[in-house]
Amino acid sequence: MAVRSRKMTDKIPEPTLRRLPWYLSNAKLMKEKGEKYVSSTQISRQINIDASQIAKDLSYVDISGRTRVGYEVDLLIQVLEDFLGFTNLHKAYLFGVGSLGGALLRDSGLSHFGLQIVGAFDINPNLVGTTVEGIPIYHTDEFEERRAKDGVKIGVLTVPINIAQDITDKMVAGGIQAVWNFTPFRIRVPETIVVQNTSLYAHLAVMFNRLNEIIKK
Amino acid sequence: MAVRSRKMTDKIPEPTLRRLPWYLSNAKLMKEKGEKYVSSTQISRQINIDASQIAKDLSYVDISGRTRVGYEVDLLIQVLEDFLGFTNLHKAYLFGVGSLGGALLRDSGLSHFGLQIVGAFDINPNLVGTTVEGIPIYHTDEFEERRAKDGVKIGVLTVPINIAQDITDKMVAGGIQAVWNFTPFRIRVPETIVVQNTSLYAHLAVMFNRLNEIIKK
């Protein structure tokens, strides 16, 4: 190709990455309604984001719209799913098979978005050696050896807060490169390690607080 | 009281609300280690947030630190848990008992942070009339009547994207005041309705993208 597409040269901003799944789900909806094309103006009207912002976000993805008609829906879906990494499976380990950890193991939906949990680690003797939805639970001590063999790069962290940092350190020492942190604990990692914090509790706190304000009015 | 505390007059900013659970989990860890007092400087060192930011965030909460020693750990935990709404249970309904919805119903951990799912709604005849972890699943048609009786204000949205907006509209029409949206769909609600978006898929997208950048290097 003579022209280098933008995505090859620029690091895509995180807010853009977070918005792209909205456009993807909107495109899927359009497809279901039988639409062949969708414009940024149409998406804008439906999800309440500036059309120019949408066009700018989509400029990071390797797709171009046609004047007046917009983006081809099928192509937009395919390009976005590829770009977001939802079409190929990324192997992951889960650490801590408690209530939330167990729930995530049972959520087969994650694999539709590219995450395949291939093993879990815990120290509870009642859990070690068992499986959840076919996913084996190993003793935490087995992690390093297994990882070297499996080549897993992603770790899902669902341990109690008092061992969150310890387990993170073990993960990193053992070769994990990205940590999806579900604990309400702010973990410390070397700069080269990717961290995504999904704190359900922080979202609850915001929701309760805003709800109280409404009720007080 | 002669002095009105700050939290009575100002709306607490969302970034502050999102950081408070970090301080809470840090205080819990300090307590476990036998510490009686913790200063913002200590918290700062551990979780890598500016001490002045921490002090500012905590000024929204009804607690004052003592010079040199800092905040009393037990009190800090109690005040934060109260303030964040984790100590009293907020009743909620869940909409859509699919893979993620079912997983959330099984996550008893949510109740430790103040969310009690008291019922779920679906239209799947194989699910309606059954229970998950003791939580009854009703037909979606029963929602309005049940809500009027139960006084539930929070709705957890885990339906497929093609009905996300429809179900949201039903929830709002039926009296739900806060929607915890787990779908990758950007829902539209009236201004008075609280929405928290927890898109696991957006977090996955960011993680995959950043991981790819590292691997490419």
Describe the structure in your own words:
Two copies of one chain form a homodimer. Chain A has ten helices and nine strands. Chain A has helices spanning 6-9, 14-32, 40-47, 51-58, 73-84, 99-106, 109-112, 143-150, 161-173, 200-216, and strands spanning 37-38, 71-72, 90-95, 115-122, 131-132, 135-139, 154-157, 178-181, 194-197. Chain A has a seven-stranded mixed β-sheet with strand order 5-6-4-3-7-8-9. The radius of gyration of chain A is 21 Å and the shape is globular.
Element-by-element helix/strand order of chain A: HHEHHEHEHHEEEHEHEEH
Supply Rg of chain A. 21 Å
The CATH architecture of the largest domain in chain A:
3-Layer(aba) Sandwich
The percentage helix of chain A is 40-55%
Total domains of chain A, how many?
2
Binding site for NAD(+) (chains A, B): 96-101
Protein name (chains A, B): Redox-sensing transcriptional repressor Rex
Domain CoA-binding (chains A, B): 85-186
Pfam families (chains A, B): CoA_binding (PF02629), Put_DNA-bind_N (PF06971)
